[in-house]
Specification:
alpha/beta; 18 strands; methionine biosynthesis
Length: 366
């Protein structure tokens, strides 16, 4: 994607071929700041503190974290320690484990003095593969949007209204995004598309990140409070919902940012199609029941009790929004049962959120 006309990814190898650079997403939307990662500790901090976030980007960052480890110490022990440290940073996103497993697989049997070179090459491949996968997701989702728009235009609609929750755009991946990739492709193709952007409390990834990247790209959008979506659906103001996900079970259950389940319930009650866009590494074939089996990350309560924004004088300030002494809970994700999902948009096509649907696209997993 482009920022001020310059093609930009969320993570890239530094010019010296050793360090790794990222966009610090905790500084968005008001500041565009890049950070250089030099060590395993830097990569782990970037993931845990959410300088990078979104399942695909977390995976790519973890892969480069293994490469940074191999540059410093390529022994089996060092790689095992690095694997465990990185794996513990974010428990919900399955792409993290997938990328770490891919790195270990690539380095198995490689002499220690060659491991750094192999690790950097595999990390770069994982990043490039993510871009290609997300572009294909965009193409497959575009076909769906064309069909929905054809029907709505015949009914006299002037634009296609898509609602999304959290951030599943290019800032959540290496490039293109998952749920937002079809929207970019539709906009670039000339479709009159408009996006309802859930603010996505408590970290406001919709208001700060999705809105920021849609603004950069010029896509018409409106930021709404998290509780507004149901009202819009009742009044025919949402034509479809597209969200991303951090983990999908083999039965089609979807784990995504907290609040996604409520959007799916509202969509089902109002006959609004509810789609989930995901790259295949987000599918956890070892899990069947998402509600019972997927670990749900509980984050620091200060994300709920405090908010950061730009003051009237342009300064960035953090303020407390709850009374002193009030406890706060901060679950990061929820699970939407497969029965509420209209379809899964993957790089291989669109399928039903069911074991049979996933098996059709991924027969090798059957």
């Amino acid at each position: 994607m482009k920022i001020d006309g310059k093609s930009t990814r969320t993570i890239w190898l530094a010019e010296d071929g050793q360090g790794v650079e990222i966009i610090d997403q905790t500084r968005l939307p008001h500041e565009l700041v890049t950070v250089r990662l030099e060590t395993l500790a830097d990569a782990a901090h970037a993931i845990k503190a959410m300088l990078v976030r979104g399942a695909p980007l977390i995976g790519a960052t973890a892969a480069y974290g293994m490469a940074l480890t191999a540059r410093a110490n390529a022994s089996d022990m060092a790689l095992t320690v690095a694997y465990n440290i990185l794996h513990a940073t974010r428990p919900t996103a399955i792409n993290l484990k997938w990328a770490l497993d891919e790195m270990i697989k690539a380095l198995a049997g490689v002499p220690e003095d060659k491991r750094a070179e192999v690790a950097y090459a595999r990390a770069a491949e994982i990043a490039d593969e993510d871009v290609a996968i997300n572009s294909a997701i965009g193409d497959n989702g575009l076909d769906l949007l064309h069909d929905i728009w054809a029907r709505r235009r015949a009914e006299g609609a002037e634009r296609l209204n898509v609602l999304t929750h959290c951030n599943a755009g290019w800032l959540a991946t290496v490039d293109w995004g998952t749920a937002i990739a079809p929207i970019y492709k539709a906009f670039d193709a000339g479709m009159p598309i408009h996006v309802w952007v859930d603010e996505t409390r408590p970290r406001n990834q919709g208001a700060s990140l999705t809105a920021r990247e849609l603004n950069w790209h010029g896509v018409p959008h409106t930021v709404i409070a998290d509780n507004t979506g149901g009202h819009l659906m009742q009044h025919g103001m949402v034509d479809c919902v597209i969200v991303g996900t951090d983990r999908v079970t083999r039965n089609g259950d979807v784990c995504n940012k907290i609040g996604t389940y409520l959007k799916a319930l509202a969509a089902a009650d109002n006959n609004v199609p509810f789609y989930v866009a995901l790259p295949s590494p987000t599918i956890d074939w070892s899990v069947a029941d998402g509600v019972k089996e997927i670990p749900i990350e509980e984050r620091d309560a200060t994300e709920q009790t405090h908010m950061t924004g730009k003051a009237a004088d342009g300064s960035i300030v953090t303020v407390q929004v709850v009374p002193d002494g009030s406890a706060a809970g901060n679950w990061g994700f929820d699970v939407t049962p497969a029965r509420l999902v209209t379809g899964l948009i993957t790089e291989r096509g669109v399928c039903a959120a069911s074991p049979e649907g996933l098996s059709e696209l991924f027969p090798e997993r059957g």
